[in-house]
Amino acid sequence: MNIAIIGTEKLCEELIIVISQGNNTRIFEIDKIPSNESFDILIDLDFDKDTHKHWQYLNKVNASVFLLGATFIQLSSIHFDTKRNQVFGICALPTLLPRTTLEYSSAAGINLPENVVHSLNFKEALRVDDRVGMVTPRVVCMIINEAYYTVQEGTASRSDVDLGMKLGTAYPLGPFEWAKKIGEYNVYALLKAVYEDTMDERYKICNLLKTEALKVS
User: Fold this and answer.
1) In 3-state terms, what secondary structure has residue 196?
2) Which terminus, N or C, of the chain has the lesser number of Cβ atoms within 10 Å?
3) Range of the domain at 53
């Protein structure tokens, strides 16, 4: 398949490891995507950082399927014109994308074509509700937030929390290790977006996490 990818170098590298085999995969900057070429799949990992600007460019591109980073937004809030049935949201946070299962949302409430899933070398795809934070990013960031509360309250050290989660739940990473890989600011930004969308106290950000996230932003 002819695939175009937009995103930071780190995210693109993570994704290409999964999807490059058997595909013609190229990386573009958002304002340099050729409008005179057809793509089977266009993947924009930076979409929810500036949705209006990105869609202005993407709307001129001929692609059969659009997979757009929608970790911080609800796809249904974007006006996609006639391409609505071609648009799907994916998680675009570091470490959460290159998995065997592709988690996605749909602006039109439809399933991602199976040939697309298999061509991207994912074993399966799971459609989740079109909500801010999707499912996996929301859960992982909540766990990280709770870990920060535990340390802030003096209940345990960071290393103890990481070790306890890996031994007790068989998580591949401890919460603080995961926060480093995802990026503390990304964790903070996602929790902030979900809290503003739901006003649910479960997503209220720990002050320690907020302080550290804003230092590195």
Assistant:
1) helix
2) C
3) 2-127
